[in-house]
Protein 1
Amino acid sequence: MQFDPKTLKFNDAGLIPAIAQDAENGDVLMMAWMNEEAVQRTLDTGRVTYWSRSRQSFWIKGESSGHVQELVDFRVDCDRDCLLVIVNQTGPACHTNRRSCFYSAVRDGEEVELMKPMV
Amino acid sequence: MQFDPKTLKFNDAGLIPAIAQDAENGDVLMMAWMNEEAVQRTLDTGRVTYWSRSRQSFWIKGESSGHVQELVDFRVDCDRDCLLVIVNQTGPACHTNRRSCFYSAVRDGEEVELMKPMV
């Protein structure tokens, strides 16, 4: 069956959450948002492209930082309202320069830092 | 630093997305939503608890199906607007009886099914 981005369920703002997972080790790297065209651009170019809600513009991941995400596999969930992109991540995925955005854990009620910024 | 769910960034509906990842093999299982109390209940009970937007009620994952998620680790992202719960998943995570909700992939423009329902 041919995939049509129009069959995805976008929220009221026309966006769908996209989870990025490291193809190498399965780490969850980040979550950001795509609109219909960002989905299409990601599939067409193999370069993961989000929609920046703060800048209200396309955000080709790594375009300015070099920390690009090369698409390895593109997954759609059962409800068609969430995406999972498996990626080859160059450098850190997080704007704090950490490999993953999920570097804080809650353990025994305390927040602990699991990762330091990459150098 | 003590963790306070009030420091998370909830959307206009008072919800935050939570990604569930399999503690055993790193597979991304599903994405659902939590409100502040669901976060607290998840941490207090060790049983992952979402907020069901369709039913407008707490959703203790697996409460009716037995397909529970035992919390292994609770992560917060850099912007504090997305959660990652690492879980021991009993049985399928997906309501279609598949292990993961992300069982469809888009490859060469075609949608393909990667997983069959568990028996």
Protein 2
Amino acid sequence: MKISNAIEQTKEIVNGVDVDHIMDMINAIETDPDYAKFQWRATNKWINGGLSQSKIKDFYAGNAEDKIRKKTFTLNADEPVFAAGQDSAPNPMEYLLHALATCLTGTLVYHAAVRGIEIEAVESSYTGNMDVRGLFGLSKDIRSGFQQVTVYMRVKSEVSIEELTEMALYSPVYDIVSQSSPVDFKLTTY
Amino acid sequence: MKISNAIEQTKEIVNGVDVDHIMDMINAIETDPDYAKFQWRATNKWINGGLSQSKIKDFYAGNAEDKIRKKTFTLNADEPVFAAGQDSAPNPMEYLLHALATCLTGTLVYHAAVRGIEIEAVESSYTGNMDVRGLFGLSKDIRSGFQQVTVYMRVKSEVSIEELTEMALYSPVYDIVSQSSPVDFKLTTY
């Protein structure tokens, strides 16, 4: 496996990633598979109309609650004026594309670092097409989500397009969007 | 259809949503289905390590490029220190949960507004479980994405849990995460 082979090859920072840190994580996982169980979290509160606010801080990883992150991240989403919002923040569909973008990019950069491959630049663009008749409940035959997502990524690196693609597509958000994840939705009232 | 029935019932702002504005959109779609075709967009540029930055502004909706939104939204994602990042921003998995949270909340609030149902409060929490052996390529049998997403939503409203749930689950991001969307990924080099 290339990741394990890279242990002897890389001892330094590659692409801004501390490869020793990642190798320590991999060694911990190989000793104890439970170390690999991560849980990411968010809470959200509706403000008004299309505006709501999420708080993000705690997560579970490496058999423990993280104690290093001190800051709580606060994120708003809103709808554009076109869709009866105030245009004060990106909307949920745009955040989904941002999640996909940053995940594909970060995954490529980390995998390359562990393999000792230098990445000089990554730029990418994302489109998501939807037909809002699904969202509005105007047609049962039209889904509410994206009918098509298209990604163009441009990478400056010595290695092949095939290896770059293989590394990027380890992306968890790519996996979720293209393959789905089970969602358990429970709603209660006050 | 409840959305159409609501035309005569609501003429005002409900839940902070301009229902007349939404009804105008629905009328435009019923006249011309192409009006319902939306395209959301993002571009992303890698900065260093786990840090990358997205820009979000333009979108297509209602047979035209939007001309109302003037601001470009800039969003960063980073990895936590635990995962060899700088903890300067939420990570992609957390952004995905934020997209899901804001989409479920906004969808519920908008559908309720069109039906003339008052929503007094919405709070929700999200967890996404993953096993990073998939992401790290340490096991071919383990997926890289979330193995389970769990949502708890609490709503203050007069109507039933069933109707509230039915309205929230029109959410496009819920549809994408729970059902998948086709992703066309094209990578080129410089």
